[in-house]
Design goal:
Fumarase C, Chain B, domain 1; Fumarase C, Chain A, domain 2; Ribonucleotide Reductase Protein R1, domain 1; 3 domains; 58% helix; elongated
Length: 477
């Protein structure tokens, strides 16, 4: 049996493990919400501790909090921020509305550790009390919205670095493969030629644009509503507190932050977080499309298009020897599906606020932070274990592009759309290359054929055969 201590909250007494830094309200939450078996994500814990440390510093400066107690709270917070006591944050992500359980978990851990530093026992909550001192001038209702903003901003740098690495790897492949002409495909059917390098350069551009949208959405998160207290009006809060909190949070986190101009609005609305989550979803949509394209182009190697080769990262089958699968892109697709699902949850939860508060903040926090984490990790793995090692199968690219029925499009300016359509159909029916049909049917003068059907020229803006002698009208006459 684990030794326990007896603690009491407004609902009555409860046993708490004697070695726990958390207290009675955390245990009550643990008993009430045995939902997922998950613990709070690290960023959610860290951000709440940042707020508690900043509050202790602010109240020490105003003189509202005894400097000795403030210093103990600050020291306890620093231990957590250094990686200690992380196992003491135990409340399931699916918990009571607003995040009161998580807030009290943090309050109790810091109070108990501060009291230990001051020579008191865990569970006595004297001289440092979780509510009176650690939570001074705060409410769950203004700390958790602030937490979500800080947590997202703190993870943004890692996301940015990971996706920038992926963008750079895709751009490098764009340059490497710029001379590889391949068949374009629209509707998964033959289309005009494109360079493999152009495809990869476009992937790089999609990532760059997606990152830009995420950064723009993140800027709204820099407005903090801390100091709003219970309903955004600032009851129990000193007038100088919001500015002091902004000052100390900037110092502690290194983040660029702003004092919210309308703390009631920032408490009522989760729109800024929903907007940020939406841009993570858009980034995931483009990322998933890229992963799916890689899976299509590597399809084979004997019964598919086999235009590229991906690095082999693991055996692909427990029964088929020698099989290698596009495992990394498959993982990326799954991550992106999860992110889209997370955003759906954030969207619905953000809409379900009522009057002065959105009580669905715990599930909002969990889902947006999960999206950040898995997108960051997936993009880095895709860059390092897949994209950087991709090679082009030049022979297969050449093979397929020459057999594309869409090459007849290049003939249209010379022989007209209707005749070009006949040639395309005839090519497919007879299994004859467009180039060979043109020669056989004498559709163009011999000196124009190579110019009109120059595959490399087709991948740049221009009219096929425009540099040849004669015009389409002349050829049809």
């Amino acid at each position: 049996m684990t030794d326990t201590r007896r603690e009491k909250d407004p609902l009555g007494p409860l046993d708490v493990p004697s070695d726990a830094l958390y207290g009675v309200q955390t245990v009550r939450a643990q008993q009430n919400f045995p939902i997922s078996g998950l613990r709070p994500l690290d960023a959610f814990v860290t951000a709440q501790v940042w707020i508690k440390k900043a509050a202790a510093l602010a109240h020490k400066e105003t003189g509202r909090l005894d400097p000795k107690l403030a210093d103990a709270i600050i020291a306890a917070a620093d231990e957590v921020l250094a990686g200690e006591h992380r196992d003491q944050f135990i409340v399931d992500p699916y918990q009571a509305g607003a995040g009161t359980s998580h807030n009290m978990n943090v309050n109790e851990v810091l109070a108990n550790r501060a009291n230990e530093m001051l020579g008191a026992k865990r569970g006595t909550y004297s001289p440092v009390h979780p509510n009176d001192h650690v939570n001074m001038a705060q409410s769950t209702n203004d700390t958790i919205p602030t937490n979500i903003r800080l947590a997202c901003l703190s993870e943004l740098g890692k996301l940015d670095a990971s996706f920038e690495r992926l963008r750079s790897a895709l751009a490098a492949k764009g340059r490497e493969f710029d001379d590889v002409v391949k068949a374009g495909r629209t509707h998964l059917q033959d289309a005009m030629p494109i360079r493999l390098g152009q495809e990869f350069t476009a992937y790089s551009g999609s990532i760059a644009r997606g990152l830009r949208r995420v950064r723009e959405a993140a800027d709204y998160l820099r407005d903090l509503g801390i100091g709003g207290s219970a309903v955004g009006t600032g009851v129990t809060v000193e007038p100088e507190y919001p500015a002091l909190m902004n000052k100390y949070l900037r110092q502690i986190t290194g983040l660029e932050l702003r004092i919210g101009q309308d703390r009631i609005q920032l408490m009522q609305s989760m729109g800024d977080v929903a907007g940020f989550s939406a841009q993570l979803r858009v980034l995931a949509i483009d990322l998933s499309k890229i992963a799916s394209d890689l899976r299509l182009m590597v399809m084979g190697p004997r019964t598919g298009i086999d235009e590229i080769t991906l690095p082999a990262v693991q055996p692909g089958s427990s029964i088929m020897p020698g099989k290698i699968n596009p495992s990394i892109p498959e993982m990326v697709n799954q991550v992106c599906f999860q992110v889209i699902g997370c955003d759906t949850t954030v969207t619905i939860a953000s809409e379900h606020g009522q009057l002065e508060l959105n009580v669905m903040m715990p599930v909002i926090a969990f889902n947006v932070l999960l999206s950040l984490r898995i997108l960051t990790n997936a993009a880095g793995v895709l860059a390092d274990k897949c994209v950087s090692g991709i090679s082009a199968n030049r022979e297969m690219c050449e093979y397929w592009v020459e057999r594309s029925a869409a090459l007849a499009t290049a003939l249209a300016p010379q022989i007209g759309y209707a005749k070009a359509a006949e040639i395309s159909k005839q090519s497919v029916k007879e299994g004859v290359l467009i180039r060979d049909l043109v020669k056989r049917e004498k559709l163009l003068p011999p000196d124009q054929i190579d110019d009109v059907l120059d595959l490399r020229k087709m991948t740049d803006i221009g009219v096929p055969g425009a540099s040849s002698k004669g015009t389409g009208a002349k050829s049809r006459s």
